[in-house]
Structure formats: structure tokens, C-alpha cells
Structures
1.
Amino acid sequence: MALCLCVHWLDFRAWFRADDFAWFGLAPGVHSFHELARALFSPRAQGTIRPLSERAFFLAGYYLFGLHSLPYRMVIFGTQFADLALILAIGRRIGGSRAAGFWAAVFFTLNTSTAQPLGWACVYNEVLCAFFLLLALYALARQSEAADRRTLRRFRMLEWGAFLAGFGALELNAVYPALAAGYALLCARKGLRRTLPMFAVSAVYAAVHMAVAPVPRTGPYAMHWGISILRTLGTYWTWTVGPVYGRLVPRLADWMLPAGIAALSLALAWFAARKVRAAQAAGVVFCALWYLVTFAPLLPLRDHMAEYYPYIPAIGICWLGGWAFAEAWAAPRWTPRVLATAAAAVYAILMVPQLEASQRWNYALTERARSLVEGLAGAHQRHPGQTILLYGVDRDLFWNAVRDRPFRLLGMANVYLAEGTERSGGGQDWGDARDFILPGGVAAEAARRGQLAVYDVRGPRLRNITSQFAALPHDARLPERIEMGDRLTGYLLGPEWPKLEGDHRWMPRRASLRMAAPSSAGRSLYLRGNCTEEQLREGPLTLTVTVNGMPLPAVPIAATSFEAAVPLPAAVIGQAEMRVLLEVNRTFWPPGENRGLGLAFGTIALR
Amino acid sequence: MRHSHLTFALAALALAGCKQPAKVQVQQTIEETPQMASEVSMGDSKAEPQLAGGFYNIEGGAWRWTARRFTVVLRVPPGSAQRGATLEFNFTIPGVVIEKEKNVALSAAIDGTPLPPETYTLAGPFTYKRDLPTSLLSGESVKIEFSLDKAMPPAGAERRELGVVANSVALHAK
């Protein structure tokens, strides 16, 4: 444990970044039991449902500790310490000595796949899943050693409890019955029958999960069943016994990485073969089984190989390595000791520098995210009534501290990026950064009206550059996108629009606005909004749209939430602006309102 | 058992009664807003907002590559609306550019009004210097758009279009 804390010290000190903020973002939306249940159990992020390791971890953590990272780290490292204790205990049973378990825990601590699970809070699911798998397996092992029925029943309950709780950590938990059956078959055959009901539970879980959150057929999370599985396994093998992504310390020659991986692979294979010849195959087979079974669900993900995926499978190889190392040192001769020490040294040389580099990279990113988020809190405190525009955001900062909207946790609806931000860095992938860009014309108008505070983010602290920014010439073109809930674009709306209501505006029967005209053919006017069920009782509504005096095809609205893309006529292409007139055929008068309401709009944009 | 219930109740009370810390630490921002400058040194990151386009990141702490077209905004120095000013652009043409292009012509425009261009046939440091009449200096700031007739297109690992190496640009009152 001391070694773990020492080796992973930067992971322990890391703050939050990227997806962490998406999970924290659930917290402000929870005000009732129903909302809590939805936050805990609805599928999110590629259809995952991980109520314990992600939802409860971040929701409870945020409620109790906000964005103070130490308590989260204590939970993550506490779980990791428990994992190490269980690796030691099970490794002792596999290798037949306490030293085998001890060295397995040491090798696991040095494995580069542990960097992200310990340093990035949203990958806690790996650490917690490992805990439940190991705890259940440990309980299974203890059942075969139980001297009385009471102890047997106690460990059986513990096994089932850990197995069931594991589904709250990670989908991978579904493979536990295969591990348990393998262990029972190899080491405690009497317990084999008791593992069978667990297969049924995993099957039901898999069926329900597939029904609620089907596997994507396209994109990086699509599954590929072919020869690519073997290629993926081969790559993951090199990431298990060598550094992830095959990175090496710059001071070492390129040949050292493949040579080191080959040497370690041969050493493990030689030890395994020796054990099989000596009729001690059970432990070896179980280590391999653990590795393959826990990797199996990940191998079809050909296009999404993550550096933390070997975290749980690597435990099997660390058991084998720990066993080999302990046995070599228990031998009476010096040759096996020297060879085992040399292999361990090669492993450390391959792993430790990359482990440190990976931690430094992660820590630096989290510190940048902390600086931005805490700086935004300061900016919001100073300028509570102003919208914040960020200048100088680079791609790393965008992905790690802006994209998942941590500013919502500070009570800020929107934070924008300066125009041109998404073009900096020459061809880098900026994802959906365009949604965060405040068009130059809108920014200039907002700065002129005193609605905007502009901050340069490139230094260690946010620097207010509002007056410098306001004095710059800005692109005076009208925006292509109007978020109706954003007061900064209010100057583009006609006087008939009522005041802003949350993230939308209700129109009366007729309403107008100005926006950019398309510069090329094939563009549409995108409209997104809502109406009430009461409005639809008399049948669908009809929205007519006129652009610069030219009527567009009418839009029928038959549901309370609508999206429509109306093709724009060629005559508006290249015009200085579009004057859009919206008219709905029926309005309603809500109780207490002295105006007739038509439709509520969220977004109007060119697409 | 009763004892454990009591402990749990006390722990829950203690948790509920604890004053929760602020959800996030607040970092103070730097609010002394820098003013727009009449002279921009390419190594000064604070002046970057005035580089309106076509400049790449700072290199060597002192200079930046430009693209073929690049734009800077400068504050009009006091008194120049009455007496005029001088535009000075200090830059370097790297040997690799002259070897490849043989000569490079640099032109500039102040708020859309063109200034006389200049052609360079040698590599090395140069100053593009032009007198500006008072008629161009009536506002608080001016936008200066530079353009080169040639630039090195992106090639291989270099994904940028490269023009010249900029060192500084300034408006000096006469």
C-alpha cells in the first residue's frame, strides 16, 4: 500500500477533468426521489448503467464534498488498497505462498494500466469492479476451506453479495460466473454446481441491459467479430507486460521495448510450461482464464482500445508473475533468482517511466482544469450578471475543462469561446466546439452593451481582457444560430417577443428575428421548440415561416416537442441577412396570462 | 444492537449538522485589463488578442511564423491624428523561403487603404516601414492587413502555411 501511494502520488493529488464533470453535472438536476432514481439508473454515455461506481460515487461525493478532490481520492485509493489485499490473498492460494501473493500485488501496482483508474475519477468503475470480482472470488475460495456450515454459508452470502453489487460497478462483472466456475473446476470442484445459478443472473442482466441500452452498430463502440479480435488481444498483451500504447522512455533504444516484452512473455511461458509438466497446471490455467475471460467482452471493440482496459485482466498475469518470482527465490540455487530478478527489473524499466509520464500528463491536465473552473468561479463572483467569454482555450483545455460544462455546477448557464478558437492548433479534432463559439458580431454587441466579460485563460490565473477585446474589430456578420434562451442574442429578435423564460422564449401569434443568410445552396432553417398538450387537443398546429418576404413550406406540429428543417430558397443565398417571420395558426391563453402564446422556441439555426 | 443504532443515529446527526464546505474553491482573477498597445512584440502573449489572424504560436519566446495573410490591430498613438504616424513591421525572411521562392513581395493595407508594397530578394532581417497620413488615423485603433505574394504551402509534417518570421509591429507618432 505504501508502494502504491508512493508510485501513484501524482494520481493521488490529481483533480478532476473531462467526463468527471458530466457525472457531477447530474447533481444539480436531482431534487426528488424520482429524479434521483433516473440519475442513478438511466443509461448514459454509450448506454452504460453503473449506479455505484459512477452515479452514486459522483452524486454523493458532490453532495458531501463538492469539487474538493481529496475525499474522492481517499475512496479510490482505499478501494485500490482493498484490491491489493485481495490480490495478495488470492495470489497466496494460487501460488501456494504468501510471497507469491505479495509479488503479484507489487507487479500490479507497477502496471501502467493502473494509472488512469487511480488518477481519473471517472475510471473508478474499474477499481470498484475489480474489488467486487476479487471479493467474490476470495469468498468462493474461502468456501472450499470452510470447516463448518456456518462459515460456508457466510462466505457464500459474501460471494453472492459481491457478485450482485458488482453489477453496479461495471458491465464486465457479468463474466464472474465464468471465473467462479473456472476456479471451482480447477481448485475446488465441489463448489462447481453452486456457481451455475450465477450464469442465469448474468444472462438476465445481459438481456435486460441489451434491451435498455442496445449495443451501437456504428462508431467506436461498435463490435467487430473477426480476426481483429486476435489483433486486439495481441496489442493488449503488449500493453499488459509492457507499457500501454507501447511508449518507451526516450533515453532507451527502440529495440528495447519489443525485446523486453518478448523476454517477459517467454519467461512467463517457460514458467507456465514448467508448472504444467510438474502437474501443477491448475493455477496457471486459472491465471490465463482470468486474463482471457475479463478481456473477452472488450476484444470486439476494435476501434476503442483504452489504456485502462488491461487494468482488471492484468491481475491474472500479475498472479502468474508473482508466483514465478516467489518460486524462483524459494529455489536453492542462484540461477533462477538472478533470472527472476532480471525479468522483474525489465518489467520495472518498461513500466515505471511510462507510469510516471502518464501520471504527469493526467495531473497537469487536471490542474489546468482546476485553474479554469476555480477561475471561472472567481469571474462569476465578480461579474454575476455578465456572460463569460474565454479567450485562448486550446484543444486540451476544451476537451478536459469546457466540453462537459463544469460551469453549470457554478450556476452559470453558459460560458462561451471566442470566435476562431476551434480553428487554432491546425486541424486538431475539436468535436462539438462550435456549439460553444460566440459569433464575433454577437460578442461585439454584447461587449458594447456591457453584458460580456472576456477572460484570457492562458496564464496561471484568468486575466480580464474585456476592454482589449472590445476594441478589436469583429466580424459584423449576423450569427447562423440563435439560442432563444440566450439573452446575448436578444437584440436580433423583434419587439413582439416576450422576455426570456429559462432556456426558451414563447412567441405570440407572429414574431420576427434577424440572422445570417446562407452563403451556399442546400441549407435549411432548423427550428426546435415546444408547445403544450392543451394546444394540440384541437389537432396539429401549423407554423408558417417567411424569409425576406418569401414563404417557406408550412411546418405541421403534432407533438409537444418539435424539430424541423425547412429548406431555404436559392434567392436568399449570399444576402446580407435573413428577416425571418414566424406565424402559428392558433394561440392559447394560459391562466393568469394576459397574452396569447404560440410556440416556445429553443434554437433557430442554419443547417 | 441498541448501541450500534445509537452510534448510527449520532453519525447521521453529525453529518447532517456539519457545515458543508463551498462546492468549489474560488480563484481570484486578474482584473487589471490590459489596454490595447501601439506596439506589439511577438513574444508578448498578453498582446495576442491584437493579433487578429494569420499568426502562429510564439516560438523561441520572441517570434512567430505568419501565414501568407496576417492581420494585427494597433492602438493609434496619441498625437498621430494631428501629425501622422509611421508603421514599422520588423520581420525576418528565412533562407529556406528565398531559396524556394527567389523573392517575396510584402504589402499592407490600413483599414482597407493599401500601402505601397516592397519586394525582398535576400534572406535576413528587414523592416517594412511606411508613413501614414493623418486621414487614416482618426479612430482609436487601426486594423493592418499584411499579405505576401508567396508562402510555403503545408508539406509533410508541417501542416502550416508559412510566410515570414514576425518579430514586432508598431505605430510610432511623428
Note: Residues 40-173 of chain B form a domain with the Jelly Rolls fold (CATH 2.60.120.260).
2.
Amino acid sequence: MEKSVLSSSEHAQPGIALPRGWGTPRQRQARWQRLRIVMTQVLVAIVLLGLWELGTVHSKVNAFLFGSPSEIGRDLLAMIRNGSIWTDTYITGVETLAGFALGNLLGVAVGLTLWYSRFVSRVVQPFIMALGAIPVIALAPIVIIWFGTGFSSKLAMSTLSVVVVSLIIAYKGATGVDPDQINLMRSLGASRHQIFRHLVVPASLTDIFAGLQLTIGFALVGAIIGEFMSSSQGLGHAIFKAGSLYVIAQVFAELVVTCALALLLSALVSKVERMLLPWRHDLQ
Amino acid sequence: MAAAEAQPPDRPLVASGLGKTFGEEDGRPVEVIRSISFSLGRGEIVSIVGPSGCGKTTLLNLLCGLLPLSRGHVLWNGRRLGSVPPRMGYMLQKDLLLPWRTAVQNVALGLQINHVPRRERLEVARALLDRLGLAAFTDYYPSALSGGMRQRVALARTLAPQPEVLLLDEPFSALDFQTKVLMQRDTAKLVREENRSLLLITHDVEEAVGLSDRVMVLSRPPCTVVAEHPINLAGDRTDIVTAREMPEFGRYVHTIWNELDVH
């Protein structure tokens, strides 16, 4: 049979197979734009830190209350030398990742399963909303009593911070599937299980991954709240201890490390998302 | 209805007295389809045209068992079915391709659902894409394909499980004119060569006349059949472009336009 004339007149979108390199003038211009933005950001940071430092040089009170960039830098160096930066980051990082994984596993599993039964989902909806309305920090005292002061209480706090959000996102993703798409699957003879596996689960992945970006932050908050309540190590512990002793520069130094950990975890999630969702050109 | 039950098997689809009223249970009934009867013969292409919003899509969903009937019944190869009939292909204006599957994986979807082994289903899917002129794009994701190409992939997905009856709901209406005519031609070829039956729902009178052996005209809701026209155009009926140039083509289009209650 003859081929369609169309295939020659229609083209796939450009930009998929372009070789890497210095590229077109337009790309060079885009790169210059990015560079200019980064340089301006660095400049703003330097100016702000400089003003901060200047403000504390001549005033002992200000330095006591606000710390100063030079002190913070000194404390960071000290933390690197005595190794506490690595152990605290590691402890908090593991708590966060474990709570993140457990919370999302539970949340996604329940959220997607609720798609199976509209009845069950309607029955449990108010309970889930009620659970989601409780600020996690309000649960901390009970969590300490139930799970003790070790790793498991931090895991519980972190998981609790994640699970309801994750559940709601997964459920919304599953119920948001285009009904025409479901009809199409039915017209192909798909069973409910096949519709779930081949349509609902992959269609929800976009939402679920958006949820991962959100919940990795929540997991870190949960872990640090857990460490605030009672702990002997971790970034939350270090922040709490330094704050209690009025060593403000140390608090800031720990905050810098926490911030770096948060960014690292978030970048990790983005990377995994790009790996697992290759059809999303907007992510590449 | 004893006569209907004894239909000879060369009429894969027969509808008698089909009707649909929405909202019967909550006391505010809206009658969308009053009564529609027709039959679709083997190898026949029948178009249903009607004013916009006349319940064409509801009709299609009733025929293929996606919506429960309020009245009447549908026979697939002489049998009443409670569920979606086997060997039926269904295609809408939206291509409904799954964005996480490549073109070839999308085409193979129906075969996968029917448990055809992976190698075999991908082979069938590749062959179909090749016939539709998409051999170079089999491993592209839908997001990298143009609208016309995506609709072609959707057509291939519909044809892959070898359906004997195709139900198409405005499948070409979102395409530009040139793409539309070429897709109509490809569809006519793939349907007529394999002696399949096609029920095409459209608001495009020219498309209906160009493709079909028969055109049915529906009224505004509550919907009934206003008129039925056998289309006799000489020559190769897969040649949509030549068909459009025949003097009878214009006459049919004119007559049907006047029957459509679009004013």
C-alpha cells in the first residue's frame, strides 16, 4: 500500500536531536542571560552579607543577637574539622529519607487504592481530612511517648508530616483521570484492574512526583521537629542546643547546613523524577 | 423481536428503538434520544449526521455498552450484550494517546490488554504504523508528534485488535483540511480493504457523503432519525478527493444540509 503523503509534510517538533555545543546565537544569548542572573544573585548576596558584617563589627549587642557572617563561617569550619557537620547531616538526612519513603509509600498506596472503591473513599474522606487538619507538631508529645527518644520517633514525625499530603495527592491524581480515557480502555476490553495498572497508576505519576517535591520538604520539617523534642544528635538537635546556649552564629551555621541538605534532597528527587518520567519533555 | 434475534450474521450491528433519558432517578429527566433504529451491514460504511449537541456521542456510548440504555436494544452479531462488545473499535475526536507510551506502545495497547505476547503485539503495531506512513516515528512519544500524526496513531491503535466494527466519533474534526482528507482516504482504504463495518458520527456533511454508503440524519434532541440516504457515487469509493468533485456529491450535501435543523 502506498505511504501517506503526510509523513513528508509533517515533522516532529524540533530540538530533540540537536547536538550539544555552543549552539545557535539564540542559545548563546540565553546562556548569557542565565550568567547575568547568576552574577547579579552573587552580588546581592555579597552586599547583604557585607552589610550584616559591618553592622556587627562595632556593636557587641548586635553581634550577640544576630551573629555575624565571619563567625558563622568560623563555626562552619569548626564543624567540618570536628566532623559534626557530617554526622548531624547524615543522621537528619537518614531520618528524613526514611520518613519520606515510608510516608509516600503508605500515602500513595492508600490514595491509589481508594480509586478502586468510590464508596470506601467517600466513607473515609472526613477522617482523612480530620487527620490532615492536625498540625504535626501537636502530635509530637504523643509520638515521643509511643516511640521513645530514638530514631523511631523521628521516623514517625517525618512519616506523619508526609503521609496525609501524599495520600490526598495520589487520590486526586487517580480520580482526575480523563473519563474518556477510561471509556477508551473499556472499549479495548480492559478490566478494572487493567485500567488501574495501565492507565490510572501511570497517569497519577505526574501528580505523585509533584507531591514528592513537596513532601521531601515536609519530611525534613518532621525530622527536625522530632529532634527538637528530644534527641542526642542531628541538625535539629544541634540547632536547639546552640539556640538554648545563645550561640546565635552556631544556630545560623547549622541552618546553612540544613538548607544545603534540603536543596540536596530536593535535587535528588528531581533527578529521580527525570529518570522515571522520560516522556515528560518539559522536565528534560 | 423474534425476527431481530434471528438476524443473519452479515449485519454485525443492529439497533432497535434505542432511547436514553438522563436523570431519571433524581426526578428531573432529560430525554436526549427518543428512538433510533438502524442496522450496519458487513463491509458497510454508515454516517450519522446531526446538529451539534444532538446526542451523537451519547448514541455511540449506548451502542458500545459504555452507557446503559433507557429503552430499546442493541444486537451485536445478533446477540444482546450487557457489556462492551468484543471486536469493536472505538475512536474519538481526542486522540487519547497515553503520554507515557511511545507511538508503537500506544498502538499495541489493545493487544496488550488482550494478552497478546509482547514481541507479536509490537510487530503488529509497527506494521500498522508503517501502513499509515509513520514508520519513522514508532518510538516517539505523543508529545513529539503533530496533531495529524497523533490521530493516525489513534487510528492504528483502533485497528490493531482487528475489530470487525468501528465506531468513530468525529475522529477528524480537529484536523486541518488537508490532513483530514488524507486521513479520510486512509481510513476508507483500511476499512474497505478488510471488509470491516464503520459507523461514523460526524457533523461534517461533506465528510459523511464522501466516505459513506449511507447517511442518516438526526434531529435535535430528543433525537430521532429524520432521513436516510443511500449514497451512490461512481468509481473507487476510497478516493475521497475524486468523490468530492462529482456532481452528485454536491446534490447529496445540499439535500442533507437542508434536512439538518441548524437554524
Note: The longest strand of chain B covers residues 30-40.
